[in-house]
Amino acid sequence: MDLGTQTVLTVLLIVVVALIAYAIGHSVGAMRIRRNMERQTSSELAQVTAEGELSGTSSDRQPRFAVVYNPTKPEAQAIIAAAQTEARNSRWAQPLIIPSDEDDGGVAAAQKALDEGVDLIIAAGGDGTVRAVAHVIADTDVALGLVPIGTGNLLARNTGLFFENPEWSIKIAMYGNDRHIDVIRTRTSPGAEPDTSVVMTGMGYDAAVMETVSPELKQRIGWLAYVEAGSRQLTGKRTKVKMKFDDQPVRSYSIRSVLGANAGRVQAGLELLPGSRPDDGLINVLVTTPKNIAQWASVLLSVVGRRKRGPATEILTCASVIIEAEEELALQLDGDFAGMSDYFEMKVVHGALTLRTPTPNQRRQMRTAQWNLPG
Questions:
Q1: I need a labelling partner for 220 at 20 to 30 A (CA). Which of 53, 262, 307, 362 fits?
Q2: In this structure, what are the phi and psi dihedrals at residue 316, rounded to the nearest 5 degrees?
Q3: For 116-166, how does the pLDDT look when each residue is reduced to its tens digit (9 = 90+)?
């Protein structure tokens, strides 16, 4: 690579880092403002509680929710205590508290809660916990509440549910409005049992990054650990694939990665797939085909510039896509490594998941930071 090319790439990287730094700074500043605002009296909270009775629950029984939580997260016990307190202070039965299992990320825990007949399951954890609960309750009448913990929290970020204080999230889950969003069902062979993604799923480079990211580094520096892992994967080779979008003719590519999105925002507020919405019944698919480091720079420019097509990128929209590769590639589901395969199928299920979101009154109170919070 000549000096001119090196200079251009350096400038591009500086610009990207500056954008990320701005987004982080803006987020931190907003959190400090919220922390310093005054909280309102407990009598005002009664209005929020009264407006949010669960629809469809019988008046002669107490509604009940479950908390499926990641036991490795130090914040979990405080969240459980807050959930139990809110249930006692309201007309709710005491919640079912179930830790997720490392082997399945919370699928068995969510299934147990569903079998107990709860009205709501609150996922208290990261993207893996949310995905496990969504996998179980998609296509049911049970709603999903989010109490984000961890470095990603992509569904919460894409749906305006990423809040600093977990008590806000618990109250929204209990008394909020229902929003019906899509899920992506995935398969690694024709006719196999499906898995589920609620935000982004992919094959190739991005999945290899998830596989190789250092857990220790992730614990120390958060999502920046993915930047370090990504830099180590940049020089890999392309793989030939055939892709079939809906009922269209098969297309051939030499890819580094294919990313299917139900929603397009990642950390630091970056819109990786602009225009993606979690309730539009569509998957936005980003195909990247860079041959070398210089073309990776064009990928960055295409993403930052919100372009649907660039020298090494293409964004397509579909309801389903099947990818057949010449060799096995890494897979990821919502940021978790999901094994290797030479076949990957994504299919959207429109409106399959009921997500609990803030009511207009809750939004007004949060905007002024006047929600009565314990402590």
A1: 262
A2: -125, 155
A3: 999 999 999 999 999 999 999 999 999 999 999 977 789 998 998 887 788
Q: Are 319 and 11 in contact (CB under 8 A)?
A: no
Q: Do β-strands 195-197 and 65-69 pair in parallel, antiparallel, or remain unpaired?
A: unpaired
The residue type of 77 is Q
Partners of residue 318 on adjacent β-strands: 283
Dihedral of CA atoms 196, 182, 24, 8 in degrees, nearest 10, equals: 80
Structure tokens at 301: 């420019």
Task: For 267-290, write each residue's pLDDT tens digit.
Answer: 767 788 888 999 999 999 999 999
Rounded CA separation 3/223 (Å): 31
DSSP state of 265: B
CA dist 154 and 164 (Å) reads: 15
- CA-CA distance, 375 to 367, in Å (whole number)? 20
Residue 149 CA to residue 76 CA, distance in Å, equals 8
Task: Report the b/e string of 145-166 with b at 16+ CB within 10 A.
Answer: bbbbbbbbbbbbbbbebebebb
Tokens of 346: 């994504």
| Strands of the chain, DSSP E | 65-69, 96-99, 120-125, 143-148, 177-187, 195-197, 200-204, 239-245, 251-255, 257-261, 283-288, 309-310, 313-318, 320-333, 336-357
H/E segment holding residue 284: strand 283-288
Which residue bears the tokens 């889950």?
173
Residue 298 to residue 304: CA distance in whole angstroms: 10
